[in-house]
Write a structure and sequence with these properties.
alpha+beta; Alpha-Beta Plaits; Double Stranded RNA Binding Domain; 8-stranded mixed beta sheet; 3-stranded antiparallel beta sheet; 11 strands
Length: 316
Amino acid sequence: MEDVVSQYTKVKTVADDFEVLCEMAGDGDEASAQEALELFPKLESALSEIEKKALLSDETDINNAIVTINAGAGGTESCDWAGMLLRMITRWCEDHKFKHQVTDFQYGDSAGIKSATVMVTGNYAYGLLKSEIGVHRLVRISPFDSNARRHTSFASIFVSAEVDDTIEIEVLDKDLRVDVYRSGGAGGQSVNTADSAVRLTHFPTGIVVACQNERSQIQNRAMAMKILKSRLYDYELEKRRKEQQAIEDTKMEIGWGSQIRSYVLHPYKLVKDHRTGFQSSQAETVLNGDLDDFMKAYLQWKSLGGKVQDTGMDDL
């Protein structure tokens, strides 16, 4: 609440100053006119940020987020692309002062990752990151191809809201299977020789979560249960929001025709969101975590009913 009030006060102060300067400029004060021109970008940026927050009106938008990234078919190429997406998300978190922790991961056979789960902590983490839900497509000259041919890779991102402590999600022991296994590590002194990693399988829904990042089996189980409850909460929300299922359904094929966004690095540079139509030619900047414009475009598109703009099949 303090953050909301502070942001509103800041915008109103800048807006009032701009209005006064415009009035003085209208009376022929050139110095005030120049100052108003210098202040306008700050006002525009502040208004854009507060507009984005105003669009975050869903019940769970303010919650922490749990981000899951999975590589599609394509072996090393897709695993490398999934690793790039993980870096993109974590860089966005760092730029916006969101705390983030990788709670589970599976390395690719040669490069990148097969899957990863990241807990993102901060106000409106879920509301902002839900714009990334779906299949992401990469077109580039493959660094793994000795013939330097162009390759297309796919990976998916799913985001669920962390369950608030005031929301009760009942998980019955009879509905749960608990598996323990040895955590993976970097080798050397950091090798975990105990079976401390935990995997939970929820039979009624088929949801599987795992955690191997904590030091003990008890801590890993507690974190895995937290993630499971958030997934179950999101599962229930999905049943009440059928109209959003086509966008947030993680069971869609990670391949052609289902992508929400394309990242083209060759023969030109372009990142295009196929739902909103928003695009940027600054591909490297986007891959370094500059997702704000895409997130705002998604929230505006969502508020207007969310009709898909195109499938992106004719980008190349």
